[in-house]
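Exam review. A common question shows you a sequence with its structure tokens and asks you to describe the fold in words. Practice with the pair below. Do the first one on your own.
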Amino acid sequence: MARYTGPKHHLCKAEGIALCGSVKCPVIRKNAGLPGQHGSKRRRKQSEYGMQLREKQKVKRMYGVLERQFQKYYTIASRAKKATGEVLLQILETRLDNVIFRLKLAKSRAQARQLVSHGHVLVDNKVVTIPSFNVKLGSVISLSAQAANLDFIKKLIEETKNEILPSWLSKKVTVGKISKVPKREDITEEIDERLIVEYYSR
């Protein structure tokens, strides 16, 4: 499966949730339904398998992860001693592109992925160009001097300076740190990880 490159908000409308992370996403508007002229009429009762599949697809698309990689994350999580669903979400949350997004150094995970791929992100003072890189507890994440001087980054920093970060992160201007392992309650999106575990446990 290749990475989705179609209309930015098409998947958001299909899932009924702002997968892109943007506050201007169309699904936030009242009565936003499925894509198409008759989208609002296409909602029908789903089977148990259908609900499990939709939840898996939703989370996969939310974090911008391909099927094979998502399944790999699940396998790792299922071997952990803690609850599989929570460990899976911890793995997804500590991806470098997601950490940049959570630190409000990018407007979306897609933009964060681009910053990482273009060599604008450092982890413990070393350039990392792999968006899926899992950041460890205590690691320091920062933007390069070049990225920090970009106009859209400066504007974003100014616009979000008073916004509250997730409790597992700390930040000073363009330098952030993972101060603790993210817990389930730190993730505010509507995710039912139980359905994902049930999907892979069939």
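Now try the second one, then compare your answer with the model answer below.
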Amino acid sequence: MIQLFSISYIFYFILHSLLAHQSTKQVLMKTILPLPYYRLFFNIVSLGLLLPLYWMYKQTSAQFLFSTFSFSSIIASICTLVGIGIMSVALLEYNLAEFSGFYQLKNKENFKANELKRTGLNRYIRHPLYTGMYLIIWGLLLLYPYPVHLSIAIITSLYLYIGTRLEEQKLLEEFGAAYLNYRKEVGMFIPKF
């Protein structure tokens, strides 16, 4: 079951990326889905596709890959909690209505263009949500060292890194020199000192 879960999880991320890709957005917006509805549609589909993944996850075996020690459990718990904290703070710094897609529905005619966010946690790291996610997935693997969690940690880490590179290309096209300077000054996942 772990192999089927892993393949399905990879497929989930591929589909997620395809739906987020600019050319897919343009095709869907020209044919069936106007811009104000796209973000909400994207989020509903993304969450809906997690349901079968969750069912498969529940079917996997719960054999430990290695024994945990009290010290490693403490470190893993701290990583997980710090990751949750970073993600929570980062989400609160964003417009959650826009993030979910409800802002676009409410403001169909007055929909504003994106702006480069350099405040809050984005002053220190360019992708705080992803930093938090890395800490959570690897912390949970250390807390619960099951094969399925190793699969989740590896696949998610690769996806986040590749996805971030693609997202940064898009941001560079959108914001040009402003994003190039931001990228030089601020670390991707870890603050520059």
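Model answer, second protein: The chain is about 75% helix and 0% strand. The chain has a mean pLDDT of 88. Full marks require stating both points clearly.
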